[in-house]
Design a protein that fits this description.
Elements (H helix, E strand, L loop, with lengths): L1 E5 L6 E6 L17 E6 L2 E7 L8 H17 L4 E5 L9 H11 L16 E5 L5 H22 L7 H14 L3 E5 L1 H6 L3 H7 L7 E8 L8 E11 L19 H16 L4 E11 L11 E3 L5 E3 L7 H16 L3 E6 L4 H6 L4 E5 L2 H14 L3 E3 L4 H5 L8 E2 L10 H13 L4 E5 L5 E2 L10 E2 L4 H10 L1
Parallel strand pairs: 1-6, 2-4, 2-5, 5-6, 9-10, 9-13, 12-16, 13-17, 14-15
Antiparallel strand pairs: 3-4, 7-8, 8-10, 11-12, 14-17, 18-19
Helix pairs in contact: 1-2, 2-3, 3-7, 6-8, 7-13, 8-12, 10-13
The protein binds ligand BES and zinc ion (2 copies).
Length: 462
């Protein structure tokens, strides 16, 4: 994708934003939100994107409009587009316009014979944008698309070792340190939970750690940790038809972490971040872990397995304990497609936020509002933790209350037990990571890449 900045538009396809009732008016086009209309002037195609009332124009509206506009441009098979912001005010959210175009142009066409048009270049026509900032926006969007590709790819292609290979490749290219623990290391170090989840599969588990050190003198290090179940069959608690088909998306947390690391390495902020991906294939098979058995975590807590389908919290628990010991992070954010319950609570456009730290909650919430990767905070009350105590081990992996009781908050309460006194936040992206409906603006069909922009925005604020 080529990107340039210019003061006047040169390309014969243009995206233009129009507020409602803007003058001069365009016949039969009101400028309502979500309205797109293409007008031709000779060979010139002008794609007008409605953004509604001027007083309501936000980054969110512009991002979505740009995405819809660029989708129209691709539909008419044009590959090069000028985003024409000529005459727009200094406050116009040009970053959101660029983001919308870059994110909206994404399509996972690898397995389609007809791949459709692909966006080849963008010219951003603006008095106010700078090339270095625009490149930064593009690096983040490319990283979102990278995460989307990882999630959309077949589970038979992206198994734990294949994911680790992607991570190693990325780290080498951008000079970050990458450590990969294989199944023997995982066993030797005593990560009994990650081992248990992975042991039913011919694709063994991995723990990947990538270090970005932009401020080597500082001891401030943030850990971002992703659930990386490359396929969640449910294990012996096998998922039924209707729930299992999309479970290649269960590594979307790990993909978002890798995407965020990719973005950081591209524009090099002065911060330190370790990205951890806890990877396993939750399979049903001869060696698969049994419901009812007890396993010992890396931090020596014992866990009774009530459901082999509540596996995400198990792989996160070991990743968090290990990461705390090795890197001593001052804060931890985990991202996970953890519970179906969060879809019941918040649907598919908002993710659940759970934390033991007020400031972390506030910073993440604000990052969600800015990026439109929105979060809503849930409580972590004592009774949720209480319901995760086992009668014959330290913890259970599902609540002892009736089946399905508050699964998102009790799942989070389980993970909290492994964060200790480290400020920690958990983001449940089970609803937002994978869109089974058709594209909606910058949110494509299938993998959404949710979390990459959220994490990057958050990390730039700390
Ligand atoms: N990977 C699933 C959660 C999920 C559901 C992700 C839908 C994406 C879309 C997770 O491992 C799971 O199965 N969770 C169980 C937990 C329960 C057994 C406590 C769930 O939500 O039903
Ligand atoms: Zn599961
Ligand atoms: Zn899962």
């Amino acid at each position: 994708m080529k990107l340039r900045i210019s003061k006047t538009a040169h390309l014969s396809t243009r995206l233009l934003f129009r507020a409602k009732n803007a003058k001069p008016s365009i016949p039969d086009f009101e400028g309502e939100k979500n309205d797109i209309s293409v007008r031709y002037d000779g060979t010139m195609a002008l794609a007008y994107c409605g953004i509604g009332k001027t007083s309501d124009v936000t980054g969110r509206v512009v991002r979505t409009a740009a995405a819809k506009g660029v989708q129209k441009v691709l539909e008419i098979k044009r590959a090069d587009v000028s985003i024409d912001l000529t005459g727009s005010s200094a406050g116009f959210p040009w970053r959101a316009a660029l983001e919308g175009a870059l994110l909206g142009a994404y399509k996972f066409a690898k397995y389609k014979s007809d791949k459709g048009a692909v966006l080849a270049s963008i010219e951003l026509v603006s008095e106010h944008a700078t090339l270095s900032e625009a490149r930064q926006v593009a690096a983040v969007c490319e990283s979102v698309n990278f995460a989307r590709d990882l999630v959309n790819e077949n589970a038979h292609v992206i198994f734990p070792e294949a994911f680790a290979k992607e991570a190693r490749f990325l780290a080498r290219k951008s000079r970050m340190k990458c450590t990969v623990l294989n199944e023997k290391d995982i066993d030797k170090k005593g990560m009994g939970l990650l081992k248990a989840v992975g042991q039913g599969s011919g694709f063994p588990p991995r723990l990947v750690m990538i270090e970005y050190r932009g401020n080597p003198k500082s001891r401030d290090i943030t850990a971002i940790i992703g659930k990386g179940i490359t396929f969640d069959s449910g294990g012996q608690n096998l998922k039924p038809t209707g729930s299992i088909e999309t479970m290649r998306c269960d590594m979307a947390g790990a993909a978002a972490v890798l995407g965020a690391m990719r973005a950081l390495s591209a524009f090099k902020p002065k911060i330190n971040v370790v990205g951890v991906c806890s990877l396993a294939h939750n399979a049903i098979g001869r060696e698969a872990y049994f419901p009812g058995d007890v396993y010992t975590a890396y931090n020596k807590k014992t866990v009774e397995i009530n459901s082999t389908d509540a596996e995400g919290r198990l792989v996160l628990a070991d990743a968090i304990s290990y990461c705390r010991e090795v890197y001593k992070p001052v804060r931890i954010i985990d991202l996970a497609t953890l519970t179906g319950g969060i879809i019941t609570a918040l649907g598919t456009t908002v993710a659940g936020l759970f934390s033991n730290d007020k400031r972390l909650t506030e910073l993440l919430f604000a990052a969600g509002e800015r990026t439109n990767e929105r979060l809503w905070a849930f409580p972590l009350y004592e009774e949720f933790t209480e319901s995760m105590k086992s009668d014959w081990a330290d913890l259970r992996n599902t609540s002892k209350k009736k089946k399905g009781w508050a699964s998102s908050v009790t799942g989070a309460a389980f993970i909290k037990e492994f964060a200790g006194d480290t400020p920690w936040a958990h983001v449940d992206i089970a609803g937002t990571a994978f869109n089974e409906e058709s594209a909606e603006g910058e949110i494509p069909q299938f993998a959404t890449g949710f979390g990459v922009r959220l994490l990057v925005d958050f990390l730039m604020q700390i």
